[in-house]
Design goal:
Blueprint: H1 3-50, H2 53-60, H3 69-73, H4 76-88, E1 92-97, E2 102-104, H5 120-123, E3 128-134, E4 137-147, E5 153-162, H6 163-202, H7 208-224, E6 228-232, E7 238-241, H8 243-249, H9 266-273, E8 280-284, E9 287-298, E10 301-311, H10 313-351, H11 355-365, H12 384-399, E11 403-406, E12 415-416, H13 419-437, E13 446-454, E14 457-464, H14 497-507, E15 511-514, E16 526-531, E17 535-536
Parallel strand pairs: 11-13
Antiparallel strand pairs: 1-2, 1-5, 3-4, 4-5, 6-7, 6-10, 8-9, 9-10, 12-17, 13-14, 14-16, 15-16
Helix pairs in contact: 1-6, 10-11, 10-12, 10-13, 12-13, 13-14
Membrane topology: Multi-pass membrane protein
Transmembrane segments: 6-25, 174-196
Protein name: Sensor-like histidine kinase SenX3
């Protein structure tokens, strides 16, 4: 039998036993309680009769043992007793004098005779409530003394209620008690059944051993996943998290913590506000992750939101290296294209014996002339990786119709400690500036780059002639996912470049920010990056 069935039977048994004990005790005492109740009722009626001054006067007038029964039968006291019995529904109202002689009785033949029960206790001035048998059969009786004006006992009133009437009332009370017990039992059983159904629904019909196995298996699978999983309920509290999610999202808070206290970035908070099933890129500390979320509902009930987190840090590192190689490749292609064109020009001049013009042209293209194509100031960049990288970016700039130049203060010595990180920062800032300067609305596009070393710290300043930062809060451009550019092939890919720049700088102990546009004569945006420890002094 299932646990739900066992619990249901146990609940029904407990309810039934409780009702049997409670109502059994009530039924076992109902007869005594009913006799006491009717006895007190008889005493109350007797008090009402005995307290009547006319009754006391008539009793005082009928003392002695030799009384005329016929006169008593027609007397006022007899009529009063019969009338009270009729009005109250009692079996009898008997009035006796100080000698115990009946002066009022339902049976006229008993008038003038001594009462059948001992009257001493009531004649001593005490109320009596008892069950006794007399000339009219067994009854529940109440006896009350009758007193004269001085308080002396001059007789008594006895009121009796038939035990048959008491028994009938007892039966009615028992039937009512049994009915109430049956209703209570039915309600208890119905409640137990409803509780069992709710339990079965909440546990999806699973037994305890099945629930234990399910929880154990799910926990093992959850923590064995290579991806992070975070779930919050509809009240915004974390309910499920595996080890990978704790590692990727840097969460140490226990299960049950409010979402606002988990330390999630704004972008991740937005994913928990509005589910996003298509993975988007996000930065968390020094990691880059792909994050998606979806709402979970069961039978129309909203259970909350589940977030999936995939680590993309290693992939992004490889992507950065690949981007650097691609940039170099594109730069070499551009340089090859430029070199081929120049050789064609040089060959044409020589074929037509324009030797002097050919020499002048050679001076120009080698940088010794007034219109050389070599990046001005590149000699001040002593670091080979950075020098080649800047030269490649200059070639790309020329292809896009943008003039890229090095600032007069540029001075770089030493060797890059992490060439990929530095070229990522410099490359993203230059690419961002080239996009702005190459905008059709921006004529004569220009990008100025200034690099300066201070011990092992590299300072990077990039200015462009574009439209500048379009946001009211310039610092917003460093927020992941924020961009003014249209579209991208990879979901969440836009708005990551500058966020990555700041992330790399801050990881190194530096920072990246937007400088005042007035600091540049180009009129566009000015970005500054500080990279401590970027160089190893030679």
């Amino acid at each position: 039998m299932s646990l739900v069935g066992q619990v249901l039977i146990l609940q029904v048994v407990v309810i039934a036993l409780s009702l049997i004990v409670g109502f059994g005790w009530r039924i076992s005492n109902v007869d005594d309680d009913m006799r006491d109740e009717y006895a007190q009722r008889a005493v109350a009626v007797a008090h009402a009769v005995a307290g009547d001054p006319d009754v006391a006067r008539l009793v005082a007038a009928n003392q002695g043992t030799s009384l005329d029964a016929a006169a008593l039968a027609d007397g006022e006291l007899q009529r009063e007793a019969v009338d009270v019995a009729r009005r109250t529904g009692v079996l009898f109202v008997v009035i006796a004098n100080r000698d115990g002689i009946r002066i009022a009785h339902p049976d006229p033949d008993e008038l003038g005779r001594r009462v059948s029960t001992d009257p001493d206790y009531v004649l001593a001035g005490h109320d009596v409530a008892e069950t006794d048998r007399g000339t009219l059969g067994e009854s529940v009786r109440g006896k009350v003394p009758v007193r004269d004006a001085s308080g002396a006992v001059i007789g008594f009133v006895s009121v009796g209620i038939s035990t048959e009437k008491v028994a009938e009332a007892t039966r009615r009370d028992i039937l009512l008690t049994v009915g109430l017990a049956s209703v209570a039992l039915a309600v208890g059983i119905a409640g137990a059944v409803l509780l069992a159904r709710r339990w079965r629904r909440l546990t999806l019909g699973l037994q305890p051993d099945e629930l234990v196995a399910l929880v154990t298996e799910q926990r093992a699978v959850l923590h064995a996943l290579a991806d992070g999983v975070l779930a919050v309920d509809r009240d915004g509290r974390m309910r499920v998290i595996n080890d990978k999610a704790r590692q990727l999202l840097s969460i140490s808070a226990p299960v049950g913590t409010a979402r606002a206290d988990l330390g999630l970035t704004t972008r991740l908070q937005q994913l928990l506000d509005v589910p996003q099933t298509v993975p988007i890129a996000a930065t968390v500390g020094d990691r880059i992750v792909l994050v998606s979320s979806h709402r979970v509902t069961v039978d129309g009930r909203d259970l909350g939101i589940v977030m999936s987190v995939i680590d993309r840090t290693d992939v992004e590192n490889l992507t950065r290296e690949l981007d650097a190689i691609r940039s170099m490749s594109e730069a070499l292609r551009a340089q090859r294209h430029e070199t081929a064109n120049r050789l064609h020009v040089l060959a044409g001049l020589l074929r037509h014996d324009h030797v002097a013009e050919a020499v002048d042209y050679l001076d120009e293209i080698t940088g010794s002339g007034s219109r050389g194509t070599r990046l001005t100031g590149l000699d001040n960049v002593d670091e080979p990786h950075l020098s080649a990288f800047l030269d490649a970016k200059a070639a790309l700039a020329r292809e896009r119709g943008v003039v890229l130049s090095l600032g007069a203060q540029t001075w770089v010595t030493g060797v890059l400690d992490d060439a990929v990180a530095v070229t990522t920062v410099v490359g993203n800032l230059i690419d961002n500036a080239l996009d702005a300067a190459a905008d059709p609305a921006s004529k004569n596009g220009r990008v100025d780059v200034e690099l300066l070393t201070d011990a092992d710290t590299l300072w990077v300043t990039v200015a462009d002639s574009g439209p500048g930062v379009v946001f009211d809060d310039p610092d917003r451009v460093f927020t992941e996912g924020v961009t003014s550019k249209d579209g991208h092939a990879v979901p969440g890919g836009r708005g990551m470049g500058l966020a990555l720049v700041r992330q790399i700088c801050r990881r190194a102990g530096g920072d990246a920010w937007v400088a005042q546009a007035s600091e540049s004569e180009l009129g566009g945006a000015v970005f500054v990056a500080k990279l401590p420890g970027a160089l190893d002094a030679e």
